[in-house]
Each structure stands twice: as structure tokens, then as C-alpha cells.
Amino acid sequence: MGTLEHEAQVDFEAVGRKLISAEALNKDEIFLVFGRATNFASDLIDSKLDQTHAASSVSVEVRSHMTVIVLDRLVSLYQGGSTPLFANLKEAVCQTFSIKSEDLSDERLHSVLSSSLDEYFSKDISEEVKKNMGLIRGAVDQVASKDA
Q1: Does residue 148 belong to any structural domain of this protein?
Q2: Residue 28 contacts by C-beta under 8 Å, 6 or more apart in sequence?
Q3: How many domains does the chain have?
Q4: What confidence tier does 27 reach under pLDDT thresholds 50, 70, 90?
Q5: Tens-place pLDDT, residues 38-85
Q6: Can you give the residue range of the structural domain that contains 84?
Q7: Within-domain flag for 107
Q8: Distance from the CA of 99 to the CA of which of 35, 66, 112, 124 falls in 20 to 30 A?
Q9: Considering the domain boundaries, does residue 122 fall inside one?
Q10: In this prediction, what percent of the chain has a pLDDT beyond 90?
Q11: DSSP codes of every residue in 108-144
């Protein structure tokens, strides 16, 4: 096992079994779960934003940060009570790892994602991302509002 380049060698079902159990996930497994969650957030951005915030109008770095901020908002909204967007995120994760949605607790998914988000936000962001925070915040509000 290793990075996503070796995804074909990864036993996604084994990762899924670990995800639904109390067994600790290793760094690569956490990366896979976080990667699936960020892909969900990216797809959500594509489906909900107008062309002002579309991927083509921002750099890859800004778009990546926007995606993580959307995921963070989904996780934060879950803390206030389960939301349809969090349920959709959970379903996407479950499909990727070949597990039943009812077998994965919301709390377990929240915990794995929260720890990954904490690690992400412990790093410095670039000047380009800082300059685009207004755009990112606007996009996040459009994509992952409390009413979504």
C-alpha cells in the first residue's frame, strides 16, 4: 500500500472493514478516505456553483483549498445535526469502500474526517489562497449552506 498512484493495489474493502470497526486506520488509509471525501466536495462544487466560481476560473491550489473548506463546512454542519449533504458524503464514502451505509456510524466518519481536516489546517496556506479567501468563502456559502 502507498499513495494514490498505487490505488489499484489497495484493498478498498479491507479499508472499508477497518473504517466501520474500531480498528485504527493507518496514514495511507486515512488519506484514501479523506481523498474520497474531497472528491465528493469537488463534485459538489461543480454541481452547485455558477461559472464565477468554476474550476476554470481559479488556480489548482485555490480550487484545492476551496474543496477542503467545503468539506470542512460539511463536517461542521454535521456537528450541528445530521444534514442531507453529510448523508450524501457518507454514502459516497461507503460506495467507494464497499460497505453498507448503516454499518458506518456518522460519528466514525466525522472523527476520521475531522482529524484529517485538523492536520490540513495546521499547515500554512499560500499567499495566492489568502488573496482568494473572499471568493472561497462565497463559494462555500453557495455550495454548503445550512439550508443545502
Answers
A1: no
A2: 1, 2, 3, 10
A3: 1
A4: very high
A5: 999 999 998 888 755 555 578 899 999 999 999 999 999 898 786 899
A6: 2-143
A7: yes
A8: 66
A9: yes
A10: 68
A11: HHHHHHHHHHHHHHTSPPPHHHHHTHHHHHHHHHHHS
**What is the per-residue pLDDT for 19?**
94
Name which of 103, 148, 117, 125 is nearest 33 in CA terms. 117
The CA–CA distances, whole Å, from 142 to 97, 108, 115, 137, 146 equal: 29, 27, 25, 9, 10
Q: Note the pTM of the prediction, 2 decimals.
A: 0.86
- For the chain, helix (H) and strand (E) counts, in that order, are 7, 0
In a domain, 24, yes or no: yes
Residue 146 is given by DSSP the state: T
Confirm if 55 and 29 have CB atoms less than 8 A apart.
no
Residue 140 has pLDDT above 70, yes or no: yes
